[in-house]
Design goal:
Helix content: 40-55%
Strand order of the largest sheet: 2-8-7-6-5-3-4
Number of helices: 15
Number of domains: 2
Mean pLDDT: 95
Number of strands: 13
Distance between the termini: 45 Å
Order of helices and strands: HHEHHEHEHEHEHEHEHEHHHEEHEEEH
Radius of gyration: 21 Å
Low-confidence stretches: none
Shape: globular
Strand content: 15-25%
């Protein structure tokens, strides 16, 4: 980079952005990819051929129009959206988080979330210039309710994010603690249910009971990570305000049509989710049997596991063609922890073999 451009960038680009690190995505070509919580299964060949023929008929020369409304209606039906609510689409949950933060960008407003948690809550707050208060979980990755309630009382947050299950810890938090935080929150509470297809419980009843609760979900873990469809359900009045910030054509016609096709074949994705849950439970036993490895409870399509040396294990697994996520640097509570996505049965066997060899 020449000095003139560097000087120009210093003048026009925010200093805090220049000091940030971008979201890192690991190269994964040729690897057993178990680092980003994707559904490892594709559709059966006959359904892929049917989807291809359907997408070939999409009018790519036109902006997305009423098909987005059709998708909203189908998602509302799929999620069993309560009366009095509306639904908003995002280019993945990341865009919805950004729009919620932008909507709440009022001087004095604060964002609160438990940590370790999804990094985009803090990143979005930082990019909008809002203070972010991360409240540490306890040693078992459970909500520290006294600390959360104290933070809510002190900072009076405009936004509280509660991931259910949490990422990267994969657990469902105590329901009584969540309800107490919702009752205490003076602003909005976003229940982030990205991993709902794999969880034993959800928060739809909380949405019905509390006008200030919003429910955020995604089709990424459903099986469409490459399609980038997130959705937000809340009271009509809330959705109407946040929706003013949404770019008018944020969901492409191809993504929209693919999502509609997936919902028409939801039974296939339900079958895939059941397989992933069964594999997850089997992996828990296999991981516990490895000396020095401690897997934590999971209600998602990933398992957090503590190993003697996470860097050595990560490097050794990568050298053997298996890519997981070393999350040890994200928070002190995650010391020597790996986050392992549940893969296909064959991928899971290769992961266990690579982990054992790396720890030997």
């Amino acid at each position: 980079m020449n000095s003139a451009l560097r000087d120009r960038m210093k003048q026009v680009i925010r200093q805090d952005i220049q000091s940030m690190h971008g979201y890192a995505v690991q190269p994964s070509a040729g690897m057993v990819k178990l680092d980003t919580m994707e559904n490892p299964f594709q559709l059966p060949q006959e359904l892929r051929a049917e989807l291809g023929a359907r997408l070939a008929q999409v009018a790519l020369n036109r902006y997305p129009a009423e098909r987005g409304d059709v998708l909203r209606a189908k998602l509302a039906e799929h999620a069993k959206m309560p009366e009095g609510c509306d639904i908003m689409l995002g280019n993945g949950s990341d865009e919805l988080i950004s729009l919620l933060t932008l909507a709440c960008h009022v001087p004095g407003n604060v964002v609160i979330a438990p940590v370790p948690g999804f990094v985009m809550y803090q990143m979005s707050a930082k990019l909008q210039g809002l203070p972010f208060i991360g409240v540490p979980l306890d040693a078992n990755f459970e909500l520290d309710l006294p600390a959360m309630l104290a933070a809510v009382r002190e900072h009076k947050p405009a936004l509280v994010y509660l991931a259910y299950p949490n990422n990267p810890t994969a657990n469902l938090w105590n329901d009584a603690a969540i309800d107490a935080i919702i009752e205490a929150a003076p602003g909005l509470v976003v229940m982030d249910e990205a991993y709902q297809p794999f969880a034993a419980r959800d928060s739809m009843e909380r949405l019905k009971r509390h006008e200030h609760v919003l429910l955020m979900r995604t089709l990424s873990k459903f099986g469409l990570a490459g399609v980038r469809i997130g959705y937000l359900i809340a009271r009509r009045e809330l959705i109407a305000e946040v929706n003013k910030l949404r770019p008018p054509f944020n969901i492409s016609v191809l993504n929209c049509e693919t999502a509609l096709f997936a919902l028409e074949h939801a039974d296939e994705y339900v079958r895939q989710a059941a397989t992933i849950r069964a594999e997850r439970d089997a992996l828990q036993g296999l991981l516990r049997a490895i000396p020095g490895v401690t897997p934590f409870a999971s209600d998602a399509n990933m398992i957090l596991a503590r190993v003697p040396d996470s860097k050595k294990a990560f490097d050794g697994m990568k050298a053997r063609g298996v890519l997981v996520k070393n999350v040890a640097f994200l928070h002190p509570l995650l010391a020597n922890c790996l986050r392992i996505t549940v893969g296909t049965p064959d991928e899971n066997v290769k992961m266990i073999e690579a982990l054992k060899a790396s720890l030997a």
